[in-house]
Amino acid sequence: MKKITAVIPIRKGSQRVVDKNLRPFAGTNLLTIKIEKLKEVKGIDEIIVNTDSEQAIEIAQKMGVSFHRREDYYASSKCTGSEFFEHLGQVTDTDVFAYCPVTSPFIKTETMETAIHRFYGEEEFDCISTVSVIKEFMWLDGKAINYNPLNAPNSQNLPDIEALNFGFTLINRNDLIRYRNIIGKKPKFVRTTDIESIDIDTPLDFFIAEQIYIKTVIEDKSLLD
User: Fold this and answer.
1) In this structure, what DSSP letter does residue 151 have?
2) Domain extent listing, the chain
3) Beta strand pairing call for 96-99 and 161-172
4) Which alpha helices (H) appear in the chain, and where do they start and end?
5) N-terminal to C-terminal alpha carbon distance within the chain
6) What pTM was estimated for this model as a whole?
7) Using CA atoms, how far apart are residues 79 and 60, in angstroms rounded to an integer?
8) How far is it, in rounded angstroms, from Cα 12 to Cα 18?
9) pLDDT digits over 145-202, tens only?
10) 46-51/4-10 β-pairing
11) CA 177 from chain center: how many Å?
12) 4-131+163-224: what fold?
């Protein structure tokens, strides 16, 4: 069986939500939540926190998982996404790379285990990633891109556009380095529920996610079903 390593990328200099990865969140923090959840997932052989943050390293050590101290350039805004993904592959000794950002705190253990099972069981694709389904009237550069304004459908009849939500992604390490991206040439997408799809990217996202986490995880876990 191939080795699967879950990599948690943490940058101390997050810009839009200051220190979102480590700041208090529902009595804990997003990094701790992610490590605890990944420890539950059958099939993951190692968890690595890839970071330039000493606080994140301390949390990793306290929770008994590995860490990689990221070089300054790869934690800066000068580093492109492609450079970053290629570097993650180069510094991670594994067969299969699992990309697991902390900003998706609601991805279920079952969803990740299903993704792992399908990654091993179906050979027609080279990566598997969680996505959200978008049904919105979308425009780009002054033009509608998913419907005809002269014959507008009801919103429920819009095409299902799948958007990466980065909750959980699996790709072979060699492909990650080759493509310089966590998405391969033949991706398989796994649709997640509305709550699972939440990705914290703005201060409003952070606030809403924290309230949902308190309500669904701390107060009433049944609401996640």
Assistant:
1) G
2) 4-131+163-224
3) antiparallel
4) 30-39, 54-62, 81-91, 109-121, 173-179, 203-213
5) 31
6) 0.91
7) 24
8) 9
9) 999 999 999 999 999 999 999 999 999 999 999 999 999 999 999 999 999 999 999 9
10) parallel
11) 18
12) Spore Coat Polysaccharide Biosynthesis Protein SpsA; Chain A (3.90.550)
3-state secondary structure 54-109: HHHHHHHHHCCCEEEECCHHHHCCCCCHHHHHHHHHHHCCCCEEEECCCCCCCCCH
The SS3 assignment for 119 reads helix
Contact call for residues 125 and 188 (beta carbons, < 8 A): yes
SS3 192: coil
Do 100 and 168 contact (CB within 8 A), yes or no?
yes
List b or e across 117-142, with b for residues whose CB sees 16 or more CB atoms inside 10 angstroms.
Answer: eebeeeeebbbbbbbbeeeeeeeeee
Which amino acid does the sequence have at 84?
F
CA distance 75 to 13: 8
Write the pLDDT tens digit of every residue in 72-99: 999 988 999 999 999 999 999 999 999 9
Q: Is 120 helix (H, G, I), strand (E, B) or coil?
A: helix
222 exposed, middle or buried (CB, 10 Å; 0-12, 13-18, 19+)?
exposed
User: Is residue 15 over pLDDT 80?
Assistant: no
Helix (H, G, I), strand (E, B) or coil at 221: helix
3-state DSSP assignment of residue 132 = strand
Average pLDDT over residues 27-39: 97
